[in-house]
Automatic annotation (TrEMBL):
It comes from Ureibacillus aquaedulcis. It comes from the Bacteria. It holds the Pfam family TP_methylase. Belongs to the precorrin methyltransferase family. Its EC number is 2.1.1.107. The gene is cobA. SUPFAM superfamilies: Tetrapyrrole methylase. Residues 4-216 form the Tetrapyrrole methylase domain. This is uroporphyrinogen-III C-methyltransferase. It is an enzyme of class 2 (transferase). The lineage of its organism: Bacteria, Bacillati, Bacillota, Bacilli, Bacillales.
């Protein structure tokens, strides 16, 4: 009998932020193929007999690794295994989940998608930043910031992002931040717009730095920000001053 594959979102970092259904999948899995950003604490809930496969992506080996992952999912499910493909955040937000689903459909393997809390919302919330707010923002976009202009990969509609959307959450963007800030300002975003950089959001190592759009690239260099990090652009960042809670909680423990 054919097994089944569950494309599961592990949540943004704090292991308690996985869904109940995601946790049930982990507990029942025969095979768990997990990504680099998944909190390893979650793997402790798996069966003793589980087979764990690390799918961390090495720079430059992207395609090969993805093919190997696809093959693994099909192979193990064909053997009748209950396979969990565990991804950071949500599997359909910059997670290649849809590509894996398409491969499974092609191979006639049954699958389910278990959503997870994405970093753009969760890391912001742990930093005391609401992505929408009645007074500050009524629209919110999740944006991939890694497209390099010089390599012809910058497909973003900068004018729309700069002028049309209140809160922007940039994923995969630390190395490209100077270009991002320049483009937003050039297309009409106020250079004094507040910006937050949230490093390792929702983990005990979370660090939040706030600054202005015009200064963000210099600040990221000075502070030596490491990945994973999220960049939130918009007036909602100012709300942090009033409702930040995570750092206060750590202090009071
Ligand atoms: N599927 C994931 C995103 C994968 S892309 C999700 O839904 O969250 C990887 C990018 O996500 C990183 O470059 C970073 O920008 C962001 N990210 C993931 N986890 C994060 C965390 N704990 N803190 C800050 N940013 C995070």
């Amino acid at each position: 009998m054919t097994g089944k594959v569950y494309l599961v979102g592990a949540g943004p970092g704090d292991p308690r932020l996985i869904t109940v259904y995601g946790m049930e999948c982990i507990k029942e899995a025969d095979v768990i193929a997990y990504d680099r950003l998944v909190n390893k604490e979650l793997l402790k809930y798996a069966k003793e007999t589980v087979e764990l496969v690390y799918c961390g992506k090495e720079p430059g080996r992207h395609e090969l690794i993805q093919d190997e992952i696809n093959e693994l999912l099909v192979r193990e499910a064909t053997r009748g295994k209950m396979v969990v493909r565990l991804k950071g955040g949500d599997p359909f937000v910059f997670g290649r989940g849809a590509e894996e689903a398409a491969v499974l459909r092609e191979a006639n393997i049954p699958y389910e998608v278990v959503p997870g809390i994405t970093a753009g919302i969760a890391a912001a919330a742990y930093a005391g930043i609401p992505v929408t707010h009645r007074e500050y923002a009524t629209s919110f976009a999740i944006v991939s910031g890694h497209g390099r202009a010089e390599k012809g990969q910058d497909f973003l509609h900068w004018e729309a992002l700069a002028k049309g959307i209140d809160t922007l959450a940039f994923y995969m963007s630390v190395g490209n931040i100077r270009h991002i800030a320049n483009q937003l300002i050039a297309h009409g975003r106020d250079k004094n717009t507040s910006v937050a950089i949230i490093e390792r959001g929702t983990t005990e190592n979370q660090r939040t730095i706030t600054t202005k759009l015009a200064d963000i690239a210099d600040r990221i260099e000075q502070e030596q920000v490491v990945n994973p990090a999220l960049i939130v652009v918009g007036n909602v960042v100012d709300v942090r001053e009033k409702i930040a809670w995570f750092e206060q909680m750590e202090e009071s423990v």
